[in-house]
Prior knowledge:
The protein is mostly helical. The chain is 70% helix and 0% strand. The chain has a domain at 67-234: MetI-like fold (Orthogonal Bundle).
Amino acid sequence: MNSEKRGPGFYALAAFFALFVLFLYGPLSTIVILSFQGPDGGLTFPMNGASLHWFGNLFEKQAVGDFGGSFTRSFVLGLMVMVTTVVVSLLGGLAFRRRFVGSAALFYLAIASLVVPSILVSLGIGLLFQVTGLRPQWYSSAFGAHLTWTLPFGLLIMFAVFNRFSPAYEEAARDLGASPWQTFVHVVLPMITPPLVGVGLFGFSLSYDEFARTLMTAGSFNTLPLEIYGMTTNVTTPVLYALGTVTTAFSFTVILGALAAIALVNRRRARAAR
Length: 274
C-alpha cells in the first residue's frame, strides 16, 4: 500500500492548525487548571495546592453572586428559545417551499436582525417594554431578544435542507394512500430530524451564552453570562474559575448529547432502510 508523500505544505498547515487550537483552547485550559487550586489559592499561577474546594464552594451561599439562580434562568431560557426556534424554523421552512406574495421581503426581514448590532437590539426591545409600561424580564423581553438571534440561523438551515429535499418521497407516500399528515410524520419528519436536532442545539447554545442581547432585557434578575460578567469585578477567588469549568463542561455535555441523538437517529434510519 503506497502512502502519499507529505510535502512542506502539509506540515505548515498542521503547525498552523496546532497554533489555532492552542490559541482557541489555551485560555480555557488555564481557567480549568486554576479552578483546582487549593483552599488558599489565588487567581494566578503558581498554584497553591490542588483540591476540589472551589467546586464545593459553588454550592454554598455566596457573599456575591447567585450561581444557582442565574444558571437556572439561563437553562430555562435556553430551552424556551430552543423549542421555539425549532418549531418556527420548521414551519418557516415548510412555508417557503412554495413561492407566495411577499416571500422575498419576508425572507430578508427575517434575517435582517443578523446585521443589526446586538446591543442595539437589546436597547430597542428594552425601551419598547418600558414605553408600553411592561417590566423587562428574562422570560419575556430577553426571550424575544434571543429569538432575533437564533431564528435567522434556524430558518437559513431549514431553507437549505428543504431546497435539497426531493418531493419524490412525498409523492410516493401519497401514491400509497398516505394523508398529508401521515406523509409529514412518517416520511418528511424522520428525514429532517438530524437538521432539526442541529437547529435545536444551535438555538440553545446561542441563547445560553448570549450577553449583548440580554444586557438591557433581563430585568432585575441576571442570566449566567451577566452574572459572570458582574462577578469579574468583585470576586477575587478561584470560585469564578470553578464556575467557568462547570459551565464549560455542561456546554460540552449538551453538544455530545446532541451528536449522540443525531447518531442514534441515523442508525435507526439505516436499520429501517435495510
